[in-house]
UniProtKB/TrEMBL annotation:
Taxonomy, superkingdom: Eukaryota
Any GO molecular function: iron ion binding
Keyword terms, alphabetized: Membrane, Signal, Transmembrane, Transmembrane helix
Domain Rubredoxin-like, first and last residues per copy: 65-109
Native source organism of the sequence: Entomoneis paludosa
PROSITE patterns (UniProt xref): RUBREDOXIN_LIKE
Lineage per the UniProt record: Eukaryota, Sar, Stramenopiles, Ochrophyta, Bacillariophyta
Protein name, entry field: Rubredoxin-like domain-containing protein
Signal peptide: 1-18
Chain segments annotated as transmembrane: 125-144
Amino acid sequence: MKFLTTLLLVVMASLSTAFQAPMPTSRAPVMASPTALNVFGNKKSAAAKEAAKAAEAELAAQFWQGEWVCKDCGYIYNRAECAGMFFEEQGPGFRCPQCSGPRRRYAKKVGDRVGTTLDGGDAPILIFSFGGVIATIAFGIWAVENL
């Protein structure tokens, strides 16, 4: 019996490590972008910096300038903490860094008021939940009477 227990533990340990992703050994070296340095290794000129600022301002004008707030925990989206991306640029897999709430749970904040979330609030969840409860009760009544 002790042999089977030991064998089972060894198999479980090997299976638990067999499906894990390998750990990275080191980070890739950071390379300077070709636009950041000119041929002589000097930094960007003032004109290039101004052009970059203008492009950034033009990009910022396309997105909401107010704050995005997680309705679950109150976390205010900080662009600097999220790879410098605007909230609208985040993909559907984005999660709140504080509570891991989905992207659809964020809402626009205007002044001291928070608007509705991207999914329209909790109404769809509540409607389908109550519908499921009613369907379960109806099925239970039908099963008791007919079976």
